[in-house]
């Protein structure tokens, strides 16, 4: 299965249109959150992305809630919005967790979860899934501009427990394009340009 991975579009309509143009060449599109900016602009960017007919997995970022994302995607037949749940595509399980984990310093607009809340939402992740999280696992593709690792312990523990075939994430802009591994599991912080990924 060939995946087109993207995160953190942040209402960039030109970048969204580029993803739409590339989507027919892939078996699935995976969007790891932050389509809006501070809970605004979702109703502009999702109609652009909704031209994608390829099956598409989406999780909310900290810039939009799952309710906001699901509402915006209601008229998009190919979209599957995940947050604490999963779906199977082509015989492969996908599981999603959105939001900022741990809680960010950005204030009330940010859609965030504590590590304990995230652990609960990740409890049903099946072994060997493609795990799509907005926040990266702690210590992997999660370094900010100050050199700090600011990813999620709950996501890391879920990766260690379930051994996903791939982790797709974003959130930490300074680590866009960074790749890592936990055991046999590749981790990709993908960013807004779009990354092709042949899933083994």
Word description of this protein:
By secondary structure, this protein is of the alpha/beta class. The chain has one domain: Metallo-dependent phosphatases (Purple Acid Phosphatase, chain A, domain 2, 4-Layer Sandwich), CATH 3.60.21. The chain is 21% helix and 24% strand. It is built from five helices and eleven strands. The protein has helices at residues 13-22, 42-49, 66-72, 115-121, 153-162, and strands spanning 2-6, 28-31, 56-58, 79-81, 85-89, 92-97, 130-133, 166-169, 179-182, 185-189, 195-198. The strands form two sheets. It has a six-stranded mixed β-sheet with strand order 5-6-7-8-10-9, covered by helices on one side. Strands 4-3-2-1-11 form a five-stranded mixed β-sheet, with helices on one face. Helix 1 runs parallel beside helix 2 and helix 4 (115-121) packs parallel to helix 5. The termini are close together.
Q: Structural class, from helix and strand content?
A: alpha/beta
Rg is 15 Å
Instruction: Please tell me the CATH architecture by its name.
Output: 4-Layer Sandwich
CATH superfamily: Metallo-dependent phosphatases
Give the termini distance in whole angstroms: 7 Å
The beta-strand count equals 11
Low-confidence stretches: none
For the biggest sheet, the summary is: 6 strands, mixed
Hey, roughly how much beta strand do the residues contain?
15-25%
Mean pLDDT: 97
| Order of helix and strand elements from N to C terminus | EHEHEHEEEHEHEEEE
Q: Report the CATH C-level class.
A: Alpha Beta
CATH topology: Purple Acid Phosphatase, chain A, domain 2
Percent range for helical residues? 10-25%
């Amino acid at each position: 299965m060939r995946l087109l991975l993207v995160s953190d579009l942040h209402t960039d309509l030109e970048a969204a249109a580029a993803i739409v143009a590339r989507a027919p060449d892939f078996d699935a599109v995976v969007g790891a959150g932050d389509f809006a900016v501070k809970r605004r602009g979702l109703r502009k960017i999702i109609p652009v992305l909704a031209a994608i007919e390829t099956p598409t997995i989406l999780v909310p970022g900290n810039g939009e809630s799952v309710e906001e994302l699901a509402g915006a995607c209601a008229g998009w037949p190919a979209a599957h919005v995940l947050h604490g749940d999963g779906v199977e595509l082509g015989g492969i399980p996908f599981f999603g967790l959105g939001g900022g984990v741990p809680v960010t310093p950005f204030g009330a607009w940010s859609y965030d979860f504590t590590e304990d809340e995230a652990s609960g939402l990740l409890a049903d992740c099946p072994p060997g899934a493609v795990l799509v999280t907005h926040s990266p696992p702690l210590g992997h593709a999660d370094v900010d501009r100050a050199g700090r690792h600011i990813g999620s312990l709950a996501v890391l523990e879920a990766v260690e427990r379930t051994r996903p075939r791939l982790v797709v994430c974003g959130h930490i802009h300074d680590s866009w394009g960074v790749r890592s591994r936990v055991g046999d599991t590749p981790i990709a912080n993908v960013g807004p340009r779009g990354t092709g990924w042949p899933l083994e």
